[in-house]
Amino acid sequence: MSRSPKDETPVKVHVHGKPLHCRICDHNKFYKRRAQLNTQLATFFKVDWWNKSAYCYVCSNCSHIDWFLGEQ
What we know:
With 72 residues, the protein is mainly beta. It has one domain. The protein is built from 1 helix and 5 strands, in the order E-E-E-H-E-E. It is elongated.
């Protein structure tokens, strides 16, 4: 089963100078994604673009996702 586009290569990630490891399988390579953190109020007024975004790192081995506010 493919977990990412075929042209994307998983990468090692560092958070505050420390290597990120998956908490589930201890793997150290991830796919980077960006996700919008929607709120009910912004969606109601159709201003979803105003919501904050998070960066997600998806483990290339088990697909566990770690979320971070702001660029890592």
